[in-house]
Amino acid sequence: MEILIGILIPFIGTTAGAACVYFMKNKLNLLVQKILLGFASGVMVAASVWSLLIPAMDMSENMGKLAFVPATVGFLLGIIFLLLLDRNIPHMHLDNEKEGRESQLKKSTMLVLAVTMHNIPEGMAVGVIFAGVVSNSYGVTSAGALALAIGIAIQNFPEGAIISMPLKSSGLSKTKSFIYGMLSGIVEPIGAGITILMASFVMPVLPYLLAFAAGAMVYVVVEELIPEASQGRHSNIATIGFAIGFVVMMILDVALG
What number of other Cβ atoms are within 10 A of residue 219's Cβ? Predict the structure, then answer.
């Protein structure tokens, strides 16, 4: 049950964000969005270190001074995978107020696709770390896994709103806009569940997969979250959010792990 709840947490974050379409007229408050993006960035960076990279190196202790190899290879492969994914998925932004509804709907549809595709490696990351919890792998803790899932959920909250709000503006009903925003996150628990079910195949290469997930997470933070949070005024709010998120994740993983 704990694992089921854990893999559903990121999806709940997307669903909650998509539900903003029912009680918000325009878009998520800028300051709220910045603090959420900063907090999620801090959680995900800390999780990449304590919950993913350090356990990956701990599992490779038998390699002696080369214990860093699986973590290095996996991390770089995660970065490369997201880089290739980004090159083939358009980045759609949300300043569509002066455009016609048809163009707006087209861009919103592309945004749904982009967010959905980016959610796949995040779901895999959650699945990999919970697979480590199931197998009682050294260094992988339930607290760290839950904290990572919560960090991704916090990041998914504005993503859900970012999808549903423009869809409503393009002419779709609130319910349809909510459903499309919610469904963009369904790939995460599906990807996590498949990864856990394949745990017997995953375990021999778990150090590489944990580091791969770390690379994917860091790429998302550096390429997507931090630039978005730093745009315009009040970027210091995002920096404060980052610091709080990093410290909270560090405490959860170290003290409760």
Answer: 21
